[in-house]
Design goal:
- The two termini are 36 Å apart.
- Helix content is 76%, strand content 2%.
- The chain is globular and about 65 Å long.
- By secondary structure, the chain is mainly α.
- Helix 2 (42-72) runs parallel beside helix 10 and helix 3 crosses helix 10.
Length: 342
Amino acid sequence: MLIWSESCAAFFLLLGKPSSPMKRGNQTGVGNFLLQGFSEELDMQSFFFGLFLSIFLVTFTGNLLIFLAICSDSHLHTPMYFFLSNLSFADICFTSTTIPKMLLNIQTLDKTITYEGFLSQIFFFIVFACLDNLLLTVMAYDRFVAICHPLHYSVIMNPRLCGLLALGSWCISVMGSLLETLMTLWGLCFCKNMEIPHFFCDLPEVLKLSCSDTLINNTVNYFVNIVLGLFPLSGILFSYSQIFSSILKISSTRGKYKAFSTCGSHLSVVSLFYGTGLGVYLSSAVTSSSRTSLVASVMYTIVTPMLNPFIYSLRNRDMMGALAALLRKEVPLSIRTIIGLS
């Protein structure tokens, strides 16, 4: 991730150098931004460090186990679990974009982030946020085909289409992030105030700091958010409207329950992701308080990726079996005896 960050930062600087008025001389001192984080009180730093370190370790471990379990178990080599493995990998990268830097700032009591790090964090944050969004949409389509067209499921959701859908999600996310990041660099000038009232480089907060006209930048930002946010959400809502319509036509109660259970976990993740994400934008629109936006952002950037592995595994017998098999294979016998796996 560090190598990619440095390479992307160099690429953005190269593209923005000819005409961008954002010069090193316009920035404070060495051209660094300041991430204000959660609290100025020294007594709270240890609490926040322990809290977010624990969340990061749980998120990383949980999503990594989901990813490894799906890869190692041939019974889970199906479209649904293929997309779930991509989602778990995206969540690992999503949280790794923001939390480690926040933990480093808390530990060292140094809130600065370099200009290169600032660009890299914005780029990767948008990439993996968009990727989460698109993968959830693809997974909704997969559930739609499975429930509404079960007889044609294996034909429609063939390996080639699944690969193209995953690859397309990655490509669209990178292109959308590249556009937004370049517009952040192109034509902006930061003269005095370089303090970002957030724990990461949130693009809307960054645009508020500019002392130049941000009309074009905000327009591009809203356009990309509509294309990569509203359209996928519309696809999810359409898929589930068709799913619920098909389920209501099932005569048996057992059949309805089975159909609901196949999409229950995904629907929970969708509700959590979009509910918290929309909460951030609505809170920022209703109030100008950056603190409110900061707290709301924690939900969809930190808490949601942590909960996803639990949502997808606790009520899924196939996933629990794959996780148990993975742990029996990788964890030493002495530890398995202690935690009761053997």
